[in-house]
Amino acid sequence: MREILSKLLWDFRHTKVKGLLMIFAAGLSVWGISSVLYSYEMAERDFRVNFSRTFPADIELVIDDYQTRIEDLLLADPNVIDLERREIIGGKIMSRNGDWMPFVLFGVDVLRNMRLDVFRVRDTIGDNPKVLIEQNARFFLPEEQDSIIVQFPKHDAVMWKIGGTSHDARLAPARMERTVFAHATSLDLLQPYLEEGRRRLLVETNVSDDEQRLWEVGQRLIAIGKTNGSPIQIISIPKPGKHIHQNIVDGISFLQISSGLLLALMGVVLLSLILLTWIFPQVPDIGTMKALGASTRAVLVSYLLVFMAIVTAGLVIGIPLGHLTAVKYNGMIAYIQNFEPVEEATPLPVHLLVVLISFSVPLLFALRPLRRASSATVREAMNGTFFSVDKLFRAHTFLSTLNSKLTYVLNNLFRTGTRSLLLILLMAVGTSLFFTGTNLDFSVRRELAYFARNATYELRVRFSEELENHDVAFLDDLSFVQSRVPLKDVPVTYQPPSVVHTQTTFVRILSTQHHIPDDFVIKGELKKDCGNCLYISGEGMRQKFAGTTLGTVVDLTFPSGETKPYIYSGIFKDLAAIGAPFFLFDDGATQTFNALALDLKPGVSSAEVRNAVDDALLAHGIDMAGMLDVNMRMGQLVGHLEPTFTILKISGLITILLSLLGLIIVLDLCIRERTRELGVMRAMGGSYKFISGLFQMEFLIATILAVLMGIIASIPLTDALCTVLTETVIYHYIPAGIDLFTTGLTVLILLVLQTICIVLFNYWKIRSNTHSLLNMRI
What we know:
- The protein has 778 residues and is α+β, with helices and mostly antiparallel strands.
- The protein has 3 domains: 1-52 and 244-381, no CATH class; 57-236, no CATH class; 454-636, no CATH class.
- 50% of the residues lie in helices and 19% in strands.
- It has helices at residues 2-13, 16-51, 69-75, 174-177, 211-227, 246-291, 296-336, 348-374, 378-383, 404-413, 417-454, 539-544, 606-619, 630-673, 675-683, 688-730, 740-765, 770-775, and strands at residues 59-63, 80-94, 100-108, 120-124, 131-134, 147-151, 158-167, 180-184, 199-205, 232-236, 459-468, 481-494, 503-510, 521-524, 533-536, 553-557, 563-572, 582-585, 592-600, 624-629.
- Strands 11, 12, 13, 14, 15, 16, 17, 18, 19 and 20 form a 10-stranded mixed beta sheet that branches.
- The relative contact order is 0.11.
C-alpha cells in the first residue's frame, strides 16, 4: 500500500492544477455546509441572549375607566402571574433634515423595576435622564444635537433633553421602519399626553408557549373588565417567542440555508467531476497494480487516504470561510431583528460537529466511484478505458435522418451519462437560482409599481380626533390636491370562521365617493350602495376567509359593545393598508371621520407635498396622527425584500461561474478520452476548426438542456417564493411573472461565455499535429 500511495502522490505532484481544483471543490463543499451550521448556532445564540432576556409580555391590554381594583381581579385569574404598567404614545419628531417623522415613546413606571418587555440602558447623560433614544434611531438626529423637538396630538411642540441611548431587542430596527423610537424613564413625562382613565397593562402568564390558551386567558380578562366597569378596549397577543420581524427573518433564513446547501451541492458536484478526471487516467494503472499483486482493499484504502487528505485541505479553507460567512449573515439577521450580535467564541463541540459533517459529506459522495474503480478486475481495468454509449442513448436509433456530425455529437454527449448529467445539473441549478431571483424581483416590483401607479389616492392622513367636512375644507384650496375622500377606522372584534376565539382588528368605513379601480377587485363585486356589505383585504384575512362563501354573515362587535351582522361580499387589493382590515361603504358613518385619502393632481410628487399638507393642517390647528405615502410604502416593501433578491441572484451567478469551470474540467476529460479519435480525424483531413466545432456543438446542447431545465425549475420556485412573501412580508397576493428581457440576455451571455471558454481551451489543447495526437498517452 505504501508503494501505491507513493505513486498517487507522485501523480499529484505532476498534475498540480487538478489537485488544486479538487482542494478548491472540497473547500467549496465544506464552505456551504459549515456556513449553514455556524449560522444556525449563531442565530440561536443571538436570539437567546437578546430577545429572550427582554422577558416579553404574553398579553397586552388597554383598559378604559381604569380602577385600581381591576388589577387585583385580573391577578386572581389562575393563569395570570404578573401585571406591569407600560404606556406608549405616538407623535412626530424633527429629524436631522428638518422634516417631521414618526416618533414612538415608550414609558416605564419604575425603570429599576422592569419585569416585562425589558430594555437596556446603554448610556446616560446627566444625573436624571428623562428620554433615552433607541440606539439605531440616533441616526435620524444630528450627532451633536443634545435635545429633540417632538409634538403629540392635541399638544404644542416641546423640546426635551436627550438623556442617553437605549436598546430594546423587541423592536423593529428604526432605520428599516423609518421611525424614531425612544424610552421615557418615568411615566411623569408621558402623563400630560395620556388619555384620562385609560391604562395599558402587560400581562405575564403561565401558558406563554400556548397561543390557543393565551387567547382563552385573554377572553376571560375581557369578561372580567366588562363585568367590573373597566372595559378592555384593545387586547394584543404577540406570537409566543416570535420577533416582530420574524417573518422576514424566517424568509431570509430559508434562503440562507438553501444557499448554503446549494453551495455544498455545487462543491460536491464539482468535486465529483474532478474526481472523474482523476480516476479515469488511473483505471489502466489500477489494472497494472492488481496484475502486480495489489489487493482491492489496498487500492481502495490508498485512494481514500489521498482523497481524505484532499478533503482535509478543503476543511482548512472551507471552515474559516464558512465561519466568516455565518458572521456576516448573522450581522444582517441581527440588524433586521434589532439585535446586538453576541461576540463570543463558538463552543468547541460546535466546531467538532461542523468538522465531522463537513468531512463526511464529500467522503460519502466519493466512496462509490472510488470503490467501483478499485474493485475492477485486471481485464476490466485494462480493456475498460474506453466505453461506448448504451444502446438506449445511441442517437442514430432515433435521429437517423440527421447528418453524421450531429449523430457523433449526441452519441458523445451521452457516452458517459453520469458526467454529462452532473454538468447539466450544476448549470441548471445556477440558472434556476438566478432566474428565480430575477423573476421574483421582477414580479414584486411589477406588482408594487402597478399598485402605486393605479392607486387613486397617493396620500392617506390620520387624525388624532374625529373631524367633519368643514374642518378640512381648506385642503381643497391647495394647488396640488385633486380630490379628497373621508375614511373612518373603527376597532372591532370578530370571530374568524376557522378560529375558535375572537380577534381584534379594525374596519375601515369608506364613503361611496371612494374610487377603487375595477382591476383591484379580486373576488366578488363592489356594491357601494349596500351598507351592510363587508369586504376584506390582505393575505391574512384572505386565508382566514378561504373556506367562506360569499354571502356568509359575519358579526362585528364595536367599542360601544354593539354587535352588527354584515354580509361577506368580496376581496379587493389595497397594498397600502397596514394590518388586516375589513372595509364597508357608509356615507352616514363618514360624516365624521378620522382619516382622509388625498388624490394629487397629475405630475405632482407625493414626496414633495407631504410637508405642505402637514403645514396646512398645523396652520388650521389640526393634529395629524400619521401620514402614509403610497409610493414610500411600496419602496419600503421593496427595501425589506432586497436582501432576498440579492441572495438568490448572487447564488445563481456563483453557481453559473462554477458550472463554466466544471465545463472546462469535463472538456479536458473528453479531449483526453478521445485523443486517438481526434488524431484519426486530423489524419483523415479534419481541420482544427471542424474538431473544435464538434465540441462546441456538444456542449452547446448540454448548455441548452441546462438552461431549459433552469427556466422550467425557476417557474414553480418563483411561484412558491411569491407565496411565501405574500404570506410573510407583503400580505397581498403577488402573481409570479417571468422577466423575459433578463432571461434572454442571461442565456445569450452564457452561450457567448461558453463559446469563448471552449474556443480558447480547444486552441490550447487540440491544436497539435496528427503524429502527436495519434501517439499521445492517456
